[in-house]
Each structure stands twice: as C-alpha cells, then as structure tokens.
Amino acid sequence: MSQLVLCCDNPNHMRDSQQILHLNGFTDEEKERYKTPILRNLLDAMSQLLKACEDLHIVHEHLLQNCVDDFHEFYRNVDTADAEKEVTIPPDMCKKLQRLWKSSSVQMAYQRRWRFYLLDSAKYFLDAIVRITDKSYMPEIQDILQCRFPTKGTEEIQFNYENMSFTMIDVGGQRSERRKWIHVFDKINMMLFVAALSDYDLTDPENGSQNRLLANRYIFRTLVQSSFFRNAAIVLFFNKIDTFQEKLNNSPLVKHMTEYTGQNTVEECSKYLGNQFRACVKEKHKFFMFCTTATDTRNIEFMFGSALTHIINENLRATGSY
C-alpha cells in the first residue's frame, strides 16, 4: 500500500475530495460533524466584514446599528465558547444576519474584500443563511468542501485508485500541530503539499511580519530537504487559482513581491511562484506542480490522477522498466 502525506494550508479540502471521489462520500453521521464548523464559518465571515466596515470607515445606517450590536454580543459568546461545542443560530439572529448581509454598508465592505482578510467561502455561506441555520439542516457535499477548519492531530483515510491502495495521512497545518508531523513521516511514497496561491498578499496569522505564501514556502523547503522525503515524490498543489485570478486585478503581485518583474497575468505570476517552490527541491524530476481549486472534485480527480501517472512513470524509468 502506498502512503501519501498531505501537508499545510487547509488540507481537509483535499482529503474531503478524496473521500467524495473514492469512498462514496459521507455518512449522515459524518455530515453532522460539519454543522458546527460551517456555522462558525458563517459567523466568522460576518465578523470579518463588520470589522472591515470599522477599519474602512464605512458607516452603517442608523437603523442597522442595533443589528450590529446584537451580532457582536452573540458572536462574543460563540467565539469564546469551546470550539467543539455545538453552535446553533436562533431564528431572530438569522434574520439579523440576513439584514446585515443585504445592507449597503456590508456589501460595500465585501466589494473591497481584497483590502482585508475574508474567508473565501464567505459569500457562499452568507448567501445560504436561511438554509444552513434551519433546524433540519444537513450539510451538502459543496457545503463540506467550502468549510474551513483546522486539522487537529493527524487523520487517515484509505482508498483505492486505479487498482492501487493508498493511505492518505492528513496532518495539521497550524504551527502547534507541526511538531506531530515527524510521527507519520515513515515510508512515505508521496508528499502532497497544498498552498493557496491567493495567500500571496496576506500576512501569516502566526507571524504578522511574514508573507503567508512565503511562510508556506519555508515549511515546504524544510520538509522536502529532510531525510524523510529522500525517496518520495513531491507534489505541490497550488490551490484557489480562481481566487488568485480575481485578486490579481485588484492587488498586483509586484505590490507584495517587489522582485517580481513579469506581467500581472495568472500564467506568469503562478509560474513565478511555482519556481520559488521548485527551487527548494534538489531532485527536480521528483517534483510536480498543479494549479487547482479544491472545491472542484472533478478537477482534483484529474490532477491527482495526473500526479500518480507521472510518479508511476518515473518509478518505471528508475527501474529500467519503461
């Protein structure tokens, strides 16, 4: 059985995609576990938008201020609660969330979303407020793929692909989780490293003085140059290519990486960033890079299949069988 290790950014997107593609999706019990993270994503997104209104000096309508105050009080109680504790949003708060989301002030902040950090799935969940706050709500596949939450510890899934058996080990991307990685770095055949291209203009949440994408590059370099991956294929998935394309129009790459001299196009910018990661790998023939959107399972299946084909061919060449 081949072992794959999945590292960094928001790896649960990739892991969930494999479960949907190769393990017949999720049981109702597994879907239930996503309800609270999804509701937290919804509340986090509104909190980020309201903070942006303050930072960007966007004034709310006078009649809306009570909704803003009530949300802040509700959010403080949820935010300080145990992260594992079930979250429910009562009907009155649901109506206030709808009113806030439709307001001119919050929409103005959303239009300026490139100027502050906002969950990529913010619009997706805010557009679905009524559906996902309903008492009978059961997360749909796309809800699960859009949901963002940190991996705690390590999680494994086993699946078959093209008559081959795989174990995928998902490790947490947060700094507090990285010390646990070494326990799973044994006999790994492939490392799948996921980094969001759209992070090029963000700061690292764990180190405000560092660029978020370059912080991921540092982690990537540390891993690929370690002895644990001496014989492993290295696959870099540049995620969120769609958000990256949208962002470039409002926030040029050169503004955040002054050494960049190319055109402000998706092709040239992604190639430049890919070369920054590729330079970390000593044996270039073991490195493969793909740009993708982790919420598109069909795209993930194609990319994963392409990566495996490359790796199998390389192994055959190495043994003289190709």
UniProtKB/TrEMBL annotation:
Q: Which SMART domains match?
A: G_alpha
Q: Where is GTP bound in this sequence?
A: 120-121, 145-151, 170-174, 239-242, 294
Gene Ontology CC annotation, any one:
cytoplasm
One Gene Ontology biological process: adenylate cyclase-modulating G protein-coupled receptor signaling pathway
Q: Name one Pfam family in it.
A: G-alpha
* Record SUPFAM superfamilies: P-loop containing nucleoside triphosphate hydrolases, Transducin (alpha subunit), insertion domain
Annotated residues that bind Mg(2+) are located at: T151
PROSITE patterns listed in its UniProt record? G_ALPHA
Q: What is this protein called?
A: G-protein alpha subunit
Q: Which GO terms describe its molecular function?
A: G protein-coupled receptor binding; G-protein beta/gamma-subunit complex binding; GTP binding; GTPase activity; metal ion binding
The organism of origin for this protein: Panagrellus redivivus
